[in-house]
Design a protein that fits this description.
The chain has about 130 residues and is α/β, with parallel strands linked by helices. It has one domain (about 10-129): 2,3-Dihydroxybiphenyl 1,2-Dioxygenase, domain 1 (Roll). Helices cover about 20% and strands about 35% of the residues. The chain contains three helices and eight strands; from the N terminus they run E-H-E-E-E-H-E-H-E-E-E. The strands form two sheets. Strands 1-4-3-2 form a four-stranded mixed sheet, with helices on one face.
Length: about 130
């Protein structure tokens, strides 16, 4: 019996304004625009960097006031120190953002995008040797 192989995952993040979110990911995080719909007022779009693709989907303002939970992504990156350095000058970190070694064996840092979606970039200790 053949077994299906899962090849990729494209997380879909809820956002208030797709254009603003695309701009954030492209200008601040070094992603490139993959696609968007509806010309100047897209409701769905995607950004890509290094083979990783994230989709951004518009949600009505009422969705945010009714306690919609946002997403948290953990993104593995070999050169986490280099990426931290790249993002340090982009005015995206909060006062407590730091690159750190964790008790569970990772080196990581994280922050929230403009819609409160959490992005954690990490590398395992074992792969650092």
């Amino acid at each position: 019996m053949d077994k299906a192989v899962l090849n990729q995952i494209h997380p879909v993040l809820p956002v208030r304004n797709v254009s603003d979110s695309i701009r954030f990911y492209v200008q601040k995080l070094g992603f490139e625009l993959a696609f968007k719909d509806n010309g100047d007022d897209p409701k769905y779009g995607g950004v890509t960097r290094d083979g990783l693709e994230i989709h951004l989907q518009w949600h009505d303002a009422n969705d945010w006031t009714q306690g919609m939970d946002c997403t948290l992504l953990r993104i593995y990156v070999e050169q986490v120190d280099v990426l931290f350095g790249e993002y340090q000058s982009k005015d995206i970190f909060h006062d407590n953002t730091m690159l750190r070694n964790t008790a569970w064996g990772t080196r990581e840092f994280g922050f929230y995008d403009i819609d409160g979606n959490g992005l954690i970039f990490y590398r395992n200790f074992l792969s650092m040797e």
